[in-house]
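FIELD: query
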Amino acid sequence: MGRYSGICRVRRGDESGMKQWNERRGCFVRQRITNNNEHVRFLFEEMYRQQVHECDLSERVGFHRDTIRGWRCRYNPRVTDLEACLDYLGFKLKIVRKYKEEHEEN
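FIELD: result
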């Protein structure tokens, strides 16, 4: 029987097991972002910029790869799930005031 090479790689601590980046596949995935949520779009564009595969991100963060693939076109992630993914990529989800202070005075 073959060895399961899914999430167990990370649990074993095999950081070198990351999937090799394929520019052609990365461009294909980038063109397939149909979710209009700006935060989800940013997540996938940043994954493309840092050359991180969906399957590698899912293993590092602890989601199934189909969950992250579903965000790309069909579903919106929960805030905690999005925070975990952005944290792995080196970003932080932060709440800021929508309008400037001068709008509050009127």
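FIELD: remark
The chain has seven helices and no strands.
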